[in-house]
Design goal:
The protein has about 200 residues and is mainly α. It is about 80% helix and about 0% strand. The N and C termini lie far apart (about 80 Å).
């Protein structure tokens, strides 16, 4: 009888081991492996990073009033000057510059998440990854709208007349929020709940 006990224990351990192996295999089958970043994503990430640096530099160094006046006063010499002025205004004016920074930062956020795991809320397919990037850029633009609407107060100055240090703070915090919601969509959902709560509270007053 004593000799049969080790055999029984060995049989139980063997069955437990097989059950554990089956369970691990089932869990592994349900998991979707994350493909590594492809060359297109790497190139897009590098371009986005360079674009962020250029936008930040333009917002810091380029004044836009001299480009606004020819369009506002209709004194532009021709279509080429109008297009050039609009390009500078779109990339360097505080409002539009911040909008672009938010979108680019959100794109970099989802790229950062992709570097360590699957794109949040997407499949491992190319279409799923593309949708994740598009959704992240949309979330970044919504962060810009929240900041512009005053839901998140970053400065007591008007956004069109910021001092240099206030602009750097605005651009930095906007980029940080946007990168975060690109990296983790759950943060965006929490922010949306807060915005909805504020709107509902304002509607009841």
């Amino acid at each position: 009888m004593a000799d049969s006990m080790p055999a029984v224990e060995s049989g139980v351990e063997g069955r437990n081991g097989r059950l554990a192996a089956i369970q691990e295999a089932a869990e592994g089958a349900g998991a979707v492996a994350s493909p590594p970043l492809d060359p297109l994503e790497l190139a897009a990430g590098l371009l986005a990073f360079v674009a962020w640096l250029l936008l930040m530099a333009g917002g810091i160094t380029v004044g836009t009033q001299e480009y606004i006046d020819p369009i506002r006063n209709r004194t532009a010499s021709g279509p080429a000057q109008v297009v050039g002025c609009l390009l500078v205004i779109a990339t360097c004016h505080t409002v539009t510059n911040t909008a672009m920074l938010c979108c680019v930062s959100a794109f970099l956020g989802v790229l950062g998440f992709r570097a360590i795991g699957p794109a949040p809320g997407s499949s491992a397919t190319a279409a799923g990854r593309r949708d994740a990037y598009l959704a992240a850029v949309t979330r970044g633009f919504f962060i810009f709208l929240i900041i512009q609407s005053g839901t998140v107060v970053l400065s007591d100055q008007a956004f069109t007349n910021l001092s240099l240090d206030k602009y750097i703070r605005l651009a930095g915090i906007s980029s940080l929020f946007s990168f975060t919601v690109g990296y983790n969509p759950d943060v965006f959902r929490q922010l949306m709940d807060r915005v909805n709560g504020n709107l509902n509270a304002a509607g009841k007053k």
